[in-house]
Amino acid sequence: xxxxxxxxxxxxxxxxxxxxxxxxxxxxxxxxxxxxxxxxxxxxxxxxxxxxxxxxxxxxxxxxxxxxxxxxxxxxxxxxxxxxxxxxxxxxxxxxxxxxxxxxxxxxxxxxxxxxx
Length: 117
What we know:
By secondary structure, the chain is an alpha/beta fold. It has helices at residues 3-24, 30-38, 49-54, 65-71, 89-100, and strands at residues 42-45, 61-62, 81-85, 106-111. The protein has a single domain, classed as Rhodanese-like domain (Oxidized Rhodanese, domain 1). Strand 3, helix 5 (89-100) and strand 4 (106-111) form a beta-alpha-beta unit. The longest helix has 22 residues, at 3-24.
């Protein structure tokens, strides 16, 4: 590789890192996640069905991100929603999508590892 190619790859990696950090920063504080769950929030896992079948949070429902727009009608707009995925990136995308569609009480917990025990 020449020096320009290495520089472009480094810049692209840095930009990808910044974007990932921005998406993860939309994660709600764990205390708020606990509060919402205790209040009866519906827990939504936006990972793929195969990820969901491998492990999931108790009582979570699987609404994969790639089919979330088509399945929004199955979610209650008046009930709190807690979203999670594997790392927090997809749940942040789902959060933006749902807020844009009029869901007011929705938060992203981040990844499955961020969910309270």
